[in-house]
Specification:
four-stranded antiparallel β-sheet, Uridine Diphospho-n-acetylenolpyruvylglucosamine Reductase, domain 2, Uridine Diphospho-n-acetylenolpyruvylglucosamine Reductase, domain 3, alpha+beta, 3 domains, five-stranded antiparallel β-sheet, binds flavin-adenine dinucleotide
Length: 304
């Protein structure tokens, strides 16, 4: 069971940071609580009595999203359901709804935040591979001389191991910053050991943009999760594909070596057999969707 000696629900980021700065050892931040509650309830941490719980859900500055040039700023309180329900967000970040649809269930998605998923830093987190593929950064803030100070880190550097990140004791995640990816074809592939509420054994996020003729790969991003201590961007696969004419043989050849990226300590052989097929399926689907995007763009241009 989870209980706390002091519960605070600040309304502003500054108030939240002041509470964070004065919080006693063992105090926790909470957003959707979909990781925090099972951590206490399932006895992984035993009965937990926290000295202080700082609930961030009423902090207005942490909600919503904005486009900023070629980037999108997702407030730390953006929940997974928003990627399914907001058409503007789906257009900007086509891989996110494809990931969200496999993420937990309707109820959890209404509460669970992308930021909480990144901070929890589970090797099986579904949110990290799409964010890596979108060149994601995490914005962290803290108070210094009464002022809100911000720093940003690539998500690839922020997550350092299972359950470990570079979040400092006095910091709060204020946003996740990602590339806008309209016009890309996307895919999210996930395999787990049961059909519902599946924890990933492995998952892959892919994004592909094709050239004007719709035959060559102009840009490609691929990231893999669930197969080692931290999710990975597959730069070698991307290099193999960049600028090339798309063929089934090319995709097969690019995906085949990814078995070697498995660094898990459990189900190693299963994962090695699984991963190349998952990467291939993600690339094939992303290419197919990129073709559809390209054709739609050309139709729009012809009708303008
Ligand atoms: C039934 C069920 C199904 C699930 N299915 C999936 C799934 O399919 N895929 C998957 O990846 N995960 C899944 N999860 C895990 C969970 O839902 C996600 O990790 C979720 O995104 C966490 O977000 P949250 O807002 O609930 O985080 P919380 O539980 O509130 O917090 C998680 C961690 O992040 C910290 N934190 C939260 N917000 C901030 C902030 N702004 N700044 C700094 N620290 C912060 C907290 O202190 C805590 O350490 C599932 C969970 C449940 C209960």
């Amino acid at each position: 069971m989870l209980s706390c000696a002091r519960y605070e629900r600040p309304r502003t980021l500054k108030e939240a940071l002041m509470l964070r700065a004065e919080a006693p050892e063992g105090a926790r931040l909470v957003a959707g609580a979909t990781d925090l509650l099972p951590w206490a309830r399932e006895g992984r941490a035993g009965d937990v009595e926290l000295p202080m719980l700082i609930d961030l859900t009423a902090v207005e500055e942490l909600s919503g999203h904005q486009r900023q040039g070629g980037r999108v700023r997702l407030g730390a309180n953006v929940v997974w359901q928003e990627f399914l329900e907001d058409p503007a967000l789906s257009r900007l970040l086509p891989v996110m709804p494809l990931c969200a649809v496999w993420f937990a269930d309707d109820q959890i998605r209404q509460q669970a935040t992308l930021a909480g998923n990144l901070v929890n830093a589970s090797p099986a987190a579904d949110g990290t591979p799409p964010v890596l593929a979108l060149n994601g950064e995490i914005e962290l803030c803290r108070l210094a001389d009464g002022q809100v100070m911000r720093r940003t880190l690539p998500v690839a550097d922020f997550v350092t191991g299972p359950g470990r990140t570079r979040l400092a004791r006095d910091e709060i995640v204020s946003a996740v910053l990602v590339d806008a990816a309209e016009g890309y074809g996307a895919s999210f592939q996930k395999v787990g050991l049961r059909r519902s509420l599946v924890i990933s054994v492995a998952c892959v996020a892919a994004l592909v943009r094709l050239d004007a003729a719709g035959t060559r790969i102009e840009d490609v991003r691929v990231a893999l999760g669930g197969v080692g201590p931290v999710p990975l961007r597959l730069g070698d696969v991307e290099e193999r594909l960049m600028g090339e004419r798309v063929t089934p043989e090319l995709i097969e050849a690019a995906a085949a070596p990814t078995a070697g990226r498995v660094a898990s300590r459990s189900r190693v052989e299963y994962r090695r057999r699984l991963v190349p097929g998952l990467v291939r399926a993600a690339l094939e689907e992303a290419v197919e969707r990129a073709r559809v995007e390209k054709a739609a763009g050309q139709r729009e241009a012809a009708n303008a």
